[in-house]
Structures are given as C-alpha cells and as structure tokens.
Amino acid sequence: MKIILLGMPGAGKGTQAQFLIEKLKIPQISTGDMLRAAIKDATPLGKEAKKHMDRGMLVPDEIVIELVKRRVREPDCANGFIVDGFPRTIPQAESLRHAGIDIDYVVEIDVKDDEILRRMSGRRVHPASGRTYHVTFNPPRIPGKDDVTGEDLVQRPDDNEETVRQRITTYHAQTKPLIDYYAKWAASGDSRAPRHVRVQGTGTVDECRQRLFAALAIQCDFRQDRH
C-alpha cells in the first residue's frame, strides 16, 4: 500500500505513520527527516534547505522532489511506502504523478490552526539524540532538561511561535489546494488516481489511529495493540 499523509506541520502525520509502518511493514519516507539529515551533514542541499526552514518557508520543490525520487527506488519500498510531508504543492504532486509513482491513498489529517500553534510552539528537542518533548503534552521530568542526559533542551527555530504562524499561512496558501487537486483527479475516473480520505486529527493518539485504520480499511485489534 502506497500512502501520502497530508496535513499541517504538527497535525500528527509522523506519529500516525509509525502505526502504519508497524502494521503494514512498509517504510516511511519523511521529507522532514531527510532534510534534517542533509542539514546535519551540511550537504549543499541541506545548507540551502536550512535557509528556508529557519524562516518558516517551504523548501524549494527541486530539492524535495530529488530526495523523494531517490528514496522510492530503494528495495525496501518495493511493497509500498508512507510519504510524510510530501507533496506540499501542486507542482510537487504533478512531479510525483509524472514520475510514474502511483499512490493508493491520500490521507488528510485535519487539525485546526489554533491547535497546531499550541502543539508546535510547545515542542522542545534534545539536539544530540533527537528526543522530543512538549511543555504541556509530554514534559520532561525536569523542566528544560533531557530525561536521559540532563542536558539542555532547545526549541528549534522552525517551532517558535512566529515561525509556526508563518508555516500555517504557507500551508493554507500552497498546500491546501492539494486536497482539491487529488479530489478532482479521483473524480476524473483515472484508474491511477489515489483515493482521498479525511481523518480528524484531534483527540487522543489512539483515537486518531482508529479513525485512520478505519479509513484505510485496515483490520486491527486495538486493545491488543496497546500492550
């Protein structure tokens, strides 16, 4: 099964992708992870991407498209994959389509703007390990300190309130039109068109997972999965 997860930054796409990975045994292709790795390694693509991410802007299409095209050619994607954070624009969606990369489902995880702001502006990260906390939903045992090392936590530049607001604005302007794009493609009768489903992204993580699995017609014993 080949799945695209759409939704604003902080909507829970990465969290829900992990449940799908475990159930379907297919890899996640996270453009965010790939971009952060490129930035950490200080590659030319990474340096250019960082300039845009720090300002809360989308990374240019050509950078993201090249990363995704390379990734889906790898052997572990032969039976399917989950794409998190791509496409974000119609040109990216068209590039994916023209590259012959067929998708089964486009899943929109729907969360309101004010909830996204609350979720993202409260995130804190331990830079060395990547461990993530939230000042409200998942606070560290000692405020501002990593639970394992005791080292300082930081707020990533793209998680501060001003940048989050810019990212929300950018999403509505550039990414939201993807919903109409995929809906119109499906309505055209093209056999290659993916199905579009909307999943409410509020409530508990487990409630969101149940909605997602139901939308994808995935059989699952949720009570067993909690253990």
User: In whole angstroms, how far apart are the ends?
Assistant: 25 Å
Q: How many E-type strands?
A: 7
Provide the gyration radius in Å: 18 Å
Uncertain parts: 220-227
Order of helices and strands: EHEHHHEHEHEEHHEHH
Query: How many helix segments?
Result: 10
Strand order of the largest sheet: 2-3-1-4-7
From the spread of the alpha carbons, the general shape counts as globular
How does the helix and strand content classify structurally? alpha/beta
Oligomer: single chain
Task: Tell me what portion of residues adopts beta-strand conformation.
Answer: 5-15%
Can you give the helix content as a percent range? 40-55%
Largest pleated sheet: 5 strands, parallel
Whole-number average pLDDT? Answer: 87
Report on the structure:
The structure is a single chain. The protein has 227 residues and is α/β, with parallel strands linked by helices. The chain has ten helices and seven strands. A five-stranded parallel beta sheet has the order 2-3-1-4-7, with helices on both faces. A two-stranded antiparallel sheet has the order 5-6. A hairpin with a 6-residue loop joins strand 5 and strand 6. Helix 2 crosses helix 3, helix 4 runs parallel beside helix 5 and helix 6 crosses helix 7. The longest helix has 15 residues. The chain is globular, with a radius of gyration of 18 Å. The C terminus is likely disordered.
